[in-house]
Amino acid sequence: MKSALITGITGQDGSYLAELLLDKGYAVHGVVRRSSTESFERVAHLADRITLHQADLNDLASLTTVVQEVHPSEVYNLAAQSFVPTSWKQPLLTSDITAIGVTRVLEAIRLVDPKGIKFYQASSSEMFGKVRESPQNESTPFHPRSPYGVAKVYGHFITVNYRESYGMYGVSGILFNHESPRRGKEFVPRKVTDAVARIKLGLQKELRIGNLEARRDWGYAGDYVRAMWLMLQQERPEDFVVASGKMHTVRDLVRIAFDHVGLDWQKHTVQDPKFMRPAEVDLLLGDASKARRVLGWEPEVSFEQLIRMMVDADLKRNGG
Ligand code: NDP
Ligand code: GDR
């Protein structure tokens, strides 16, 4: 039986990936960090089918112990300080987890079984930042715009380096924004769909938002974790861009979400400079033709379907 170890299993992607791997018959193990209150909400429904191990991306010994004990066939490194604005407020913590943390996971694998354990690194379209060309593909140069983006560039290249130095099967999946009803509420799509549901139900007055002109290539997390798994099933380790190939503004997102509940977005939305960033990524648009050609990967959920799915889930969650 194949086994997988997921760091960041309690996050959005970790929960969808755990479901996918269980469906495929894997023994699924997850790394969780110690906290005074456990918040395993996203994987609570899988509690009796997965095994959780305490370790931290900042602690090599704990990671090595888990990799030794589980000896998985595949490691998915999804753990990160993943919220871009926090990376300006806590740049060193972000570097420690999101950048150096990748080396710690790679070192744990190198010490235990570098040739037998496959490794997936959760890289990001934020690495493209101030884009040099559009759409962005696997050979587009990086120009990150936040400490988070800089940390992800490190994570990308250390993965490439361990592959080239030790012959490890390590891949970097350059994923564009992906969302779901399980997305954290601080990220803009979930912030919007939760606010829309609450405004519709009379629980909140307005949506306060930052840059409405920012453009992103948004997809559904359930589609994107499939690409992660496919990347580890190939003969040769290679890096892939995973994206929908369609771009929308934050304004489009807000309008579609309010339209879905029959409200006029302009009457309920206030722009607030508090949510503007010191340096912005104006636009991201991915070219996933390599993933389509080599992995046979295709997204199934459209942007409009995704936003409606998230609004419906938030209406339900808020008692609607
Ligand atoms: P989340 O923020 O939802 O999840 C992050 C996970 O990392 C959580 O499980 C969190 O645990 C864990 N974590 C944070 N710090 C540590 C630590 N020191 N030790 C161990 N675990 C830790 O992220 P997503 O699921 O959205 O994203 C998954 C990965 O993909 C991240 O690396 C992200 O940067 C990257 N990515 C995400 C994209 C997206 O659009 N979602 C796009 C491209 C890349 P806890 O629950 O304890 O906080
Ligand atoms: P991003 O996602 O920074 O792309 O990183 P986020 O949803 O936070 O922002 C997307 C864009 O929306 C603009 N924006 C706002 N953002 C937030 N959070 N809150 C607001 O009120 C708001 N108003 C406008 C932002 O300025 C930005 O341009 C996500 C994370 O999941 C990363 O971990 C991942 O690597 C990238 O996606 C790909």
Terminal CA distance:
43 Å
Main structural class: alpha/beta
Task: Give, in spatial order, the strands making up the sheet with the most strands.
Answer: 3-2-1-4-5-6-11
Report the portion of residues in β strands: 15-25%
What is the global morphology?
A: globular
Please report the total strand number as a whole number.
13
Helix content: 40-55%
In N-to-C order, the SSE pattern is EHEEHEHHEHEEHEEEHEEHHEHH
Whole-number mean pLDDT: 98
What Rg is obtained from the alpha carbons, in whole angstroms? 19 Å
Low-confidence stretches: none
Bound molecules: NADPH dihydro-nicotinamide-adenine-dinucleotide phosphate, guanosine-5'-diphosphate-rhamnose
List the helices and strands and how they pair.
Layout (H helix, E strand, L loop, with lengths): L2 E5 L4 H12 L3 E6 L17 E5 L5 H11 L3 E4 L8 H4 L1 H22 L5 E7 L22 H20 L3 E6 L2 E2 L8 H13 L6 E3 L5 E2 L2 E2 H11 L8 E3 L5 E2 H11 L4 H4 E3 L17 H7 L7 H15 L3
Parallel strand pairs: 1-2, 1-4, 2-3, 4-5, 5-6, 6-11, 7-10, 8-13
Antiparallel strand pairs: 9-12
Helix pairs in contact: 1-7, 2-4, 4-5, 6-8, 6-11, 8-11
Characterization of this structure:
- With 320 residues, the protein is α/β, with parallel strands linked by helices.
- Helix content is 41%, strand content 16%.
- It is built from 11 helices and 13 strands.
- The strands form 4 sheets. Strands 3-2-1-4-5-6-11 form a 7-stranded parallel sheet, with helices on both faces. Strands 7-10 form a two-stranded parallel ribbon.
- Strand 5, helix 5 and strand 6 form a beta-alpha-beta unit.
- It binds NADPH dihydro-nicotinamide-adenine-dinucleotide phosphate and guanosine-5'-diphosphate-rhamnose (GDR).
- NADPH dihydro-nicotinamide-adenine-dinucleotide phosphate (NDP) binds at residues 7-8, 10-14, 31, 33, 39, 56-58, 78-82, 97, 122, 124, 175, 177-178, 184.
